[in-house]
Amino acid sequence: MYLALARKYRPQKFADLIGQASICKTLQNAIAMNKVYPAMIFSGMKGVGKTSSARILAKALNCEKGPASEPCNVCPTCLEITEDKSADYMEIDGASNNGVNEVRSLRETVKYKPLKNRLRIVVIDEVHMLSNAAWNALLKTIEEPPEHTIFIMATTDFHKIPATIVSRCQHFEFKRIPYEVIKQVLKDICRKEAIQVSDYALYLISRSAEGSLRDAKKILDQAIAIASGDVKDDDVVAILGIIAEETFIALTRHVLSQDRKGIIEQVNGLIESGTDLRFFYTEYLRFLRDVIVIKSIPDSERLHNLNPENVALIRDIVKDVSEVELLRFFNAVKELEQTMRNTEHPSIILEYMFLKLSYFSALVSIEEFLKRIKDAPAAATGAPAAATGVPTVATGAPAAATAAPPPPVAPPPAKGAEGEWIAEFKSRVEREKPRMASVLAASNLALRGGMLVVEVASHFENAWKMMKENKPYLCELAQSLAGREVGLEIVLQDAAGVDAAAGRVDGERIVRELKNDKKIKSLKDKIKGSVIAVESVKGGKDA
User: Fold this and answer.
1) I need a labelling partner for 321 at 20 to 30 A (CA). Which of 176, 331, 402, 413 fits?
2) In Å, what is the CA distance from 246 to each residue of 55, 84, 251, 257, 306?
3) Which residues contact 330 (CB under 8 A, 6 or more apart)?
4) What is the pLDDT of residues 419-478, one digit of tens each?
5) CA–CA gap between residue 74 and residue 229 (Å, rounded)
6) For residues 462 and 470, what is the distance between their CA atoms, to the nearest angstrom?
């Protein structure tokens, strides 16, 4: 019969125990000082060496060359305990022997001296499953066991053990085994078994074991069976049901290149293959974390969980992406965690998430946006440059489909005395009124019949209102620089280039004329009414 790797490579001495150095040292010192506690509790998650430690301790105490800090594993006593054939070493399953009758029977058994060994070792596995009556029956025996008996209780749920029992025992808490340590153990096993397996496959197995060495050996056993020999990455991926890293890489490439068709096609492929989309979302979040690590930390081999063979490709994909932008990606994905968990349509949310990310490359940071606004006056008064328009501020939402129309670039000042004072006019405003200067620099300034006309672009209506409020200041500044009386008119252009301000003036004049019309006044007096508003009404064919 095939012997499972978990049993074949079970620790046989304290030096073989993985990840429990402090517990091993404590037990070895207790043996050397002849101060082994008569009742102990070994707690910790599954597969970290609790029952293996109990068996090693039993061999060390009963070894024919001992008691010794390490069992010899060659004497008949050690071999009998290893093969579970010793009458003086008892392993009891607490889940199936949890009644008071079983405990009473155990109490009668431990009264008698061991048949062959120095000490009788009683190991109760999953001891937290005992009933209340069984605990009560065991209480006095645990507190005052026979001098030739040692109790070791192993449990994965320490908090379920009654406090009265805990107070009478020495407690050892077994730690979760780091995945790097598990990976090295599996690597040694594969070398002994002459099995070829990649580091990435070992990493996947170690991480999926979640700190349990026994679970890791079980998964490796399954991988060897499915591969019929040498283990490939795809075999481990198939066993664990995880998402292939190449899928994440392809989706990230589509996002950064704004290939929205590719995004939708790949999400549809995940749906058709039956992938758990909520699990996929969680794994992609982890993938983004690892991408940020390799982007921001030069020597990050031990800090990320990516396949080493794919790291160079990922670095190339994100070489033009800043760390801040990657953090923005991560934050946008993280914001959908609750929605993804509760939605009835995960495919739509997942599709929306990747489409949203694909717009991020068109966004700029607020700092860059403010810098462009600050540089706008210099660009408008200096040498002509390609118009770039007003940038979109990065807020975490998709950018608008169409950019705002570029502001008109002011022409260079006219030659001669007039051109010189207009240039000085702009310079003074820039120094004294910086907020107004950027709008003034993007406006048309022209002298028409002794009047300075400032034409503000139509999409700067708020700026036009601000300049109207500061008209006395601008008029006084123009007259002082020109050295003569100069009128000032501030107009707002409409989209078609028509003077919108002039249109408003004409409209107001017409309203005044209608209100003062004699016939309308006469009608108003007859009906004792008042003029509330004047509106233009468009008729049909007879209008």
Assistant:
1) 402
2) 45, 47, 9, 16, 11
3) 285, 288, 289, 292
4) 578 888 888 887 777 777 767 776 777 877 677 888 877 767 777 777 777 888 888 888
5) 33
6) 13
- In the structure encoding, which two tokens stand for residue 143, read together? 């507190």
The yes-or-no verdict on residue 16 having pLDDT over 80 is: yes
Bridge partners of residue 393, in order along the sequence: 364
Sheet containing strand 444-448, edge to edge, reads 444-448, 451-456, 487-492
- Under 8 Å between Cβ of 493 and 481: no
The reported pLDDT for the residue numbered 410 is 41
Quote the CA–CA distance of 205 and 232 in Å, as a whole number. 12
Confirm if 107 and 135 have CB atoms less than 8 A apart: no
Distance (Å, whole) CA 122 – CA 103: 12
Residue 381, phi then psi, degrees to nearest 5: -95, -15
- pTM above threshold 0.85: no
The residue type found at 5 is L
Which amino acid belongs to residue 79? L
Question: How far is residue 504's CA from residue 465's CA, in Å, rounded to a whole number?
Answer: 14
pLDDT tens, 169-178? 999 999 988 8
Q: How far apart are the first and last CA of the chain?
A: 103
